[in-house]
Every structure is written in structure tokens, then in C-alpha cells.
Amino acid sequence: MEKVTKTERIQNRKRIGLIYDVCLHLARQDIPFRGNNEKEHSLNKGNFLEMLQFMMDRIPEFSKQMGSAAANAKYTSPSIQKELIRCAADL
Asked: Who wins on pLDDT, 43 or 12?
């Protein structure tokens, strides 16, 4: 099993922090996260994925962080979104 390097851990933490900020913003505004169709070709993938894309289009550092994610470490799944909201509620 390949070990995660210190640099990768730092990048993953930054990525999760950015995703957490998007989750927190949507939750505070009582905006639903998911859309009906989150597939690549969809015109509207839901508020969460659309907000991530909006930020990636406008903030180079955010785009760099999200673009460097391994396929198994994107942290954008619905289960991760729910877990981040649960963590915020516990604070």
C-alpha cells in the first residue's frame, strides 16, 4: 500500500478546507446541495458542484487545489458533504 506523502496530506487538508467552506456557505444560507443530474454533461449539476466550479473558474489557487486531486481523493461525494456538515454542527 502506497503511503501518502506529507505534501499530499497538506494538499488534501487544504482541499477539504475549501470544500468545507463551500458546504458551510450553502448550509448557512439554507441552500440545497444536490441537483437532479450531477453527470458531467449536465447543464446544472446542483448548487454544491456548481459553486465549486464557480470558485475554480475565478480563483486560481482553488482551481489548482481541486485540479490536483487524485481520482479517489476529490472529497465531493454526497457522503463527504454530509460528514462535513455534521462536523460543523459539532463545533
From this structure: 12
Q: What nine digits make up the cell of 9?
A: 496530506
Is residue 75 helix, strand or coil? coil
DSSP 2-56: PPPPHHHHHHHHHHHHHHHHHHHHHHHTT-----S--STT-S---HHHHHHHHHH
pLDDT of 78 > 80? The answer is yes
Q: d(Cα 34, Cα 77) in Å, to the nearest integer?
A: 10
Residue keyed to cell 444536490: 34
CA atoms within 13 A on the CB side of 14: 15
The string of pLDDT tens digits covering residues 19-60 is 999 999 999 999 999 877 777 777 788 899 999 999 999 999
